[in-house]
Specification:
By secondary structure, the chain is mostly beta strands. Helix content is 14%, strand content 50%. It has 1 helix and 7 strands; from the N terminus they run H-E-E-E-E-E-E-E.
């Protein structure tokens, strides 16, 4: 009977240990090394026309496990747009700028417990 309990205990310990091994291991990100840029397609962006905004990162490998939100400041007010992973390391979102000008754009990057905010500028003709 003791041997049976010992086997069950060992299976439980093994099960708990293996449950932590699932999924892709997180690669540590040094926030000081991460930079973000935002480019437009087409370039240059034109007001009144839908534009694809592409956020790209250097300084860390950012994958589809991350979430990215673009925070475009329009007359001082935030317009939040969720971006989707493009499969090549960038994150895309579509937006139509009503007026020409330079727009402050904050790129919010969420990876596991990490939230980084990087500032970029988008020029619209």
């Amino acid at each position: 009977m003791k041997a049976r309990w010992r086997q069950l205990l060992m299976l439980g310990v093994l099960g708990i240990g293996l449950s932590g091994c699932g999924g892709e291991p997180a690669v540590p990100i040094d926030p000081a090394l991460v930079e973000a840029t935002v480019r437009t397609e087409p370039a240059p962006a034109s007001s009144g026309t839908p534009v694809t905004l592409v956020a790209e990162f250097t300084g860390a490998e950012i994958t589809d496990r991350a979430d990215v939100t673009l925070d475009i400041r329009v007359e001082g007010e935030p317009v939040l747009i969720d971006a989707t992973y493009d499969g090549e390391g960038g994150f895309e979102a579509t937006y139509t700028f009503a007026d020409p000008g330079s727009y402050e754009t904050f790129v919010h990057l969420y990876v596991d417990d990490l939230h980084l905010t990087k500032k970029a500028q988008v020029d619209v003709q």
